[in-house]
Design brief:
52% of the residues lie in helices and 10% in strands. The strands form two sheets. A two-stranded parallel ribbon has the order 1-2. Strands 3-4 form a two-stranded antiparallel sheet. α2 packs antiparallel against α3. The protein is rod-shaped and about 95 Å long.
Amino acid sequence: MRYSARGVMDAARRLIADRRANFAVMTALCTPVALTLTAFAIDEGSLYNERRAAQSIVDLAAITAAANINKAQQAVLTTLKDNGITSVAVQQQGTKIEPTGSKAVVEVVPGRYSGVSSIAAGSRFEAGKLPYSAV
């Protein structure tokens, strides 16, 4: 059976004009995109929750260190260990240690904190300034 160019064009027009099953076709075309976006949203939510949990643990370690300012480094390590972070490298002030996949890096810096609202928030902590009131 041979098809003429006119016959092929007529068949193409009929196919394009036919509106039956459009919902099924659009669903089939959009489903992979929707699934990909859903997976991306779930991954981003998971990363956000992990960051929040890590920040909470670090904040707790800082509060514990400030409460035990004479033994701040040990207080930080104990708090992290008690919260499931057992592989930690302590970075001394002025040195640089690169974190690895298995080891977190923590720097414990005592200093003085001023809660005066006229001072910019980023400038309220002064590292190394005596008397120590924050870590």
